[in-house]
Amino acid sequence: MDTLKSIVIRSATEADIPEIQAIYRHHVLHGLASFEELAPAIEEMRARFRSVIELGMPYVAAEIDGRIAGYSYAAPYRTRPAYRYTVEDSVYVAEGFSRRGIGVALLRELIARCEAGPWRQVLAVIGDSGNAGSISLHRACGFALTGTLPSVGFKFGRWVDSVLMQRSLGAGDASGPHSVHERL
Q1: What is the percentage of the chain residues whose pLDDT exceeds 70?
Q2: Fewest CB atoms less than 10 Å from the CB: which of 17, 62, 94, 130?
């Protein structure tokens, strides 16, 4: 079966949270993409989902044959007002579904939804400089490497880098924010 033909990218709902939590739990417990060491419970994931939605930010899910195969969302990069036009993306694909184009489909949809909003920059803070999959995904979607923070995390008994990547949204910094709606 061709995954790209059977994948549905749609807005995530609260009903998706148990599957989203299971995907994230796997990444927390077995990977370096997240620097969390304890997987959040479903209620915590539900609260995080609600906070993204309440801010009017996009949260999307990839569905294949009725199962959530991945998810992606944008959240504020930082809380200070000067950062209000910059978001940080998160993309997670379920175990067994990698290398099928799901991450690219999720990130492209997320970028499109962010461009429809007031945001001008999207950042990726990627756990582990050896995370070739996430770095390649972001590069394929127009992100540029902006830097690496060496050894800023310690997980699974070793030091872990954070890789920073960035992509402009819409007009980016070519014009002032006067052409977008104020969000604060």
Answers
A1: 93
A2: 130
Alpha carbons within 13 A on the beta-carbon side of 115? 12
Phi-psi region of 151 (alpha: psi -120 to 50; beta: other; left: phi over 0): left
Nearest CA to 136 out of 163, 114, 171, 97 is that of 163
Residue 180 amino acid letter = V
Query: What local confidence, expressed as pLDDT, does residue 4 receive?
Result: 61
Packing angle of the helix pair 132-140, 102-115 (nearest 10 deg):
50
Is-contact 152 160, C-beta < 8 A? yes
State the burial class of residue 28 (Cβ atoms within 10 Å of its Cβ: 0-12, 13-18, 19+): buried
Q: How many residues does the chain have?
A: 184
Which residue in the block uniquely carries the two structure tokens 């036009």? 85
Of 159, 109, 121, 145, nearest to 4 by C-alpha is: 109
Q: What is the pTM of this model?
A: 0.92
* 114 neighbors 133 (Cβ within 8 angstroms): no
